[in-house]
Amino acid sequence: MEPLQYSVNCVESDCWDWDSYYEKHPPPRNQVQSGKRVARRIERFIESKGLTANSIADVGCGPATTIFDLARRMPRCDFRGYDSSRTILRMNRQKAEKLGLDNLHFHFTKLPAMAVRRRFSIVMCIATLHYVEDPRRAIRRLYSMVEPGGCLVFNYPNRAHRAAVIREAEHDPVVTRRFELVIRGGNLLSYSGIERKLGRRPRSFWLAVGEPASRVNPCVVIAK
Ligand SMILES: C[S@@+](CC[C@H](N)C(=O)[O-])C[C@H]1O[C@@H](n2cnc3c(N)ncnc32)[C@H](O)[C@@H]1O
Fold it and tell me: How far is the CA of 62 from the centre of ligand 1 (A)?
């Protein structure tokens, strides 16, 4: 069985409260490594598609490992990290200032009702829709933030993911609390559901970057 690649090692019972979680825990090593892997994939994707990426938004950025990494390597690209945790946004701003990264900025927002009016070459949303009550509305909103010629990249909970979470939850009560929404099945998506909502057939992001598709961690790209 494939592991849930982006699960965080929660040890506190309050870890679903992201502000409190970030106050108490530095980003776990597996999340940092996973964020760096996402950065490499985004770079590969940009290269292979010959995209001109002038601006990249990371929604539900958390500690923003991916865009910190990319912002150093792509100094002419404008990076925006959005999150609903003011704690992590404050920490990220301090880190960006310390590193002198003036192409990287952070803003509060809460999916699904994001009030972001501008558009981006790439909008990504990784390991975040798992915590959002209305993911269909969220992906509509995210897609509206993509400029023509750009694309939206996101992963999401599906039925296979839910089954894997339920198995993990059997021996980890924190998983039960943290993924309560997924376990309830209230925010599951599918390829056909995404296509109905956005009017475009999603493609596997894994395949687009030359990696095997994952049933439990589907990640898609939708061009505009
Ligand atoms: C598991 S972390 C993922 C962080 C990062 N994308 C990564 O892959 O490492 C989920 C993030 O989503 C944020 N989040 C949860 N619900 C959200 C919402 N409704 N709108 C925006 N961000 C949200 C949390 O604050 C948290 O930082």
Answer: 5
Domains and CATH numbers, the chain: 18-223 (3.40.50.150)
Q: What is the C-alpha to C-alpha distance for residues 221 and 91, in angstroms, rounded to an integer?
A: 29
| Residue pair 187/135 in contact by the 8 Å Cβ criterion | yes
Condensed to tens digits (0 to 9), the pLDDT of residues 141-154 reads 999 999 999 999 99
The residue whose CA has the least distance to atom 13 of ligand 1 is: 60
212 CA → ligand 1 middle, Å: 25
Whether the CB of 83 sits within 6 Å of ligand 1: yes
Could you read off the pLDDT of 6-19 as tens digits, one per residue?
444 444 444 478 99
The predicted-structure confidence for 61-113, as pLDDT tens digits, reads as follows: 999 999 999 999 999 999 999 999 999 999 999 999 999 999 999 999 999 99
Contact 121, 94 (CB under 8 A): no
Look up tokens 């990504």; give the residue: 124
Distance 91 CA to ligand 1 centre (A): 14
